[in-house]
Hints:
alpha+beta; single chain; three-stranded antiparallel beta sheet; Arc Repressor Mutant, subunit A; 5 helices
Amino acid sequence: MVFQIGSALLDACVLSALEEEPLYGYALTQKVKSVVDISESTLYPVLRRLTKDGLLSTYDQPFNGRNRRYYVLTDYGKSQLIFLRNEWISYKERLDGILINKEDLG
């Protein structure tokens, strides 16, 4: 994709990916990477920041002799996701207003 993703949009993608269920780091990375071109080395600092800011919590669970760290959306994270979604809708509508040629859609 040629468009750069900003931190607010990346935050929204991470929070949204965790809305249905907790995910461990690798699974979360793969889910986000399915829609956004991002590396694991970029995503893990975002996860640490979101955890530090109280939007995510974590727990460890053993798996095949190792621990997997799972990320969970907190209540604050859920409210922030709602806020970011509303901001996205407004932003997308403004972008569509200038980028989408209505004649090309017809």
